[in-house]
Amino acid sequence: MRNAGASIDPPTDPFAAVPLPSRPVRPGARDPSVLPGEQPKGGSRLPPGVSPDIFGPSGAGQPAAPSGFGRPAGSLQGAPGLPPVAPPPQPWQMAAPPERSLRQHDETASGGPQQPESPHFTEPPRRRGRRSLLAVVVLLLLAGLAYAVPAIIMSGKMLPGTRVHGVDIGGLTATEAADKLRDRLQGKVGEEMTLLAAGRKYSLDPENAGLEFDIVATIGQASSGFPGPMDVWRALTGTTELAPQVSVDPEHMDSAVTALAKKIDLKVREGEVTFKGTKPVVVTPRDGHELEREAAAGAIRKAFLGAGGEVELPVSVIKPKATEGAVEKAAADAGKALSGPVTLTSSGRQAQLPVDTLAAHLSFKAESAGSMVPVFDAKNAVAAVENKLVDPAQAPQEPTFRIVGTTPELVPGRSGKGINDEKLADAVTRMVTKGGSRTIPVVLTNVNPRVSDAEARKLGIEEKISEFTTPYACCVSRVTNIRTIAKLLDGYLVKPGETFSLNGVIGQRDAARGFVPAPMIEGGRLVDSVGGGISQFVTTMYNAVFFGGLEDVQHVAHEFYISRYPAGRESTVSWPGPDFRWKNDSKYGVLVKTSSTATSVTVAFWSTKRYDIESLSSQRYDFTPFRNATGTGPSCLPMVGQQGFTIDVTRVFKQEGKEVKRETKKTVYKPETNLTCTSTSGPAQNE
């Protein structure tokens, strides 16, 4: 063979003949034996193209190169011709932070000491940071998925756990939720509400109060669109209760609360001292209460579709001004004051105020301090006796009108002397509270007419606006009273806006002015009384008011029907009550003109005409039978029995032939007892 017999020794080291430096030289370091600018002797000691880096670093702390590869002489490591021993494994060097790298570089360059490498493996800080960041990213992705997945499922629907008044609407669309609420709560919406006020219960229909369940607004409270993280959390972990929203019609609610107030409100009763004849009667004070309407409306609205049960409505308690003790004291004072008549004197003249006149004009007013103070109406009290204290030639004269043909002509009035009403009232009230003399001197003062001549001319007294006549049988005592009161009121002027009171103008009927005893109805029986029978004059005036289109303020029909009067259009009067009052609600004055004959009385009103009046009467209905009775004694007055009934009368107001308004009033007549008197004879009499 070609190479047979060739030596089996290892091939000769090609670098064995290359002389090595006497000391290790770092790669790239200048040989200290070579001056700067000179080439090393013998040139490079490595073959061309061979880098000294293949021998590894030769600096301090590095292992010596293998023999033949630049190791120091005398090194016995390895056998000649064998590859050098591999250096021990070193950990992978991580790049140090900039400052540290620079410091190590400086120490290495300066030959300073370096710390030995740890023999244990240490993970580089950069790798640890990357792993932590990766973990955070993974957690965030998982959290995002945990929110996004249920959020996508819940989007566009009511969140799970959403309830309205116990009805679960979770997972439904708005339309589905509305249908479900409408179906489930329909019965609840229509339930009557139970209200509690001042210890009493009342019922209220929510529909009548204008209350409605606002489903749209209720559902609108729920989260809409894509739910947020907190919405998803609440949906997954709990429930959301939506309060039912309520809409209210203000007009219906106001009407319902007003109707409740009429049932609940109790007017406070102030303490009073009234008189039964001449005997004082105590009216004890009583608390009142009043519904707080605005707060009540709020409570009703809040309770609608609420928890149920009774709804407490707020009510204010109203206390009377005077205490019960103050009222009793006032009654005791009144009893002393009415122990006898009061005598009035003036310049040698005198007149008496009888006990019944004192009682009729004496009253007591409750003060806020809790006391009762007496009030005396001196003006009306002395109306019947003033002519006894003042010379008629010096008395004031009211202006009036006389009718010449069909034309009213002014009769001028004049001022004159009259009793000072205020000073007389003060004197009487002092006597009531403190006692003292029952003789009171009156003070005269200049008194002007109620209406001046200039005012009278502007009252618009131009034409007759109404007239009414009623008949009576001649020559009985009651006719005297009718003609007497007609004469007293003839020519009386009622100013625009003024309320006429018959008892206020005429006062108590007495013999001094020509009134005589005559039958009148009292307690369902006929009794004799001074001034009895004037109810016929009142009925006549009432019809003049009716057809004059004036306002009826107070009229009281007789207890039973009297055939000479138009049914449902008649009125009675008594002293001190009931009274007959009407108001001149026009912008013109009203002149009262009266006339009478032996068989009839007429009342006419003159003013400026506003309305044509038509009277419509219903058929009589609700008849009630009369009873029979027998009376004895000289005071018994027989009566003819007749049944009771009810009738409605409508007043129709017209202008230029067109109806502008109408008003209807109901009158209920009791049956008249068929009374037979055993101690008297003669025909039965009616009032």
UniProtKB/TrEMBL annotation:
This is Vancomycin resistance protein YoaR. Keywords: Membrane, Transmembrane, Transmembrane helix. Pfam families: PG_binding_4 (PF12229), VanW (PF04294). Signal peptide: none annotated. The chain crosses the membrane at residues 133-153. Residues 81-91 have a biased composition (Pro residues). Residues 1-127 are annotated as: Disordered. The keyword Membrane applies. InterPro entries: Glycopeptide_resist_protein, Vancomycin_resist_VanW, YoaR-like_PG-bd. Residues 206-307, 370-440 form the YoaR-like putative peptidoglycan binding domain. PANTHER family: EXPORTED PROTEIN, EXPORTED PROTEIN-RELATED.
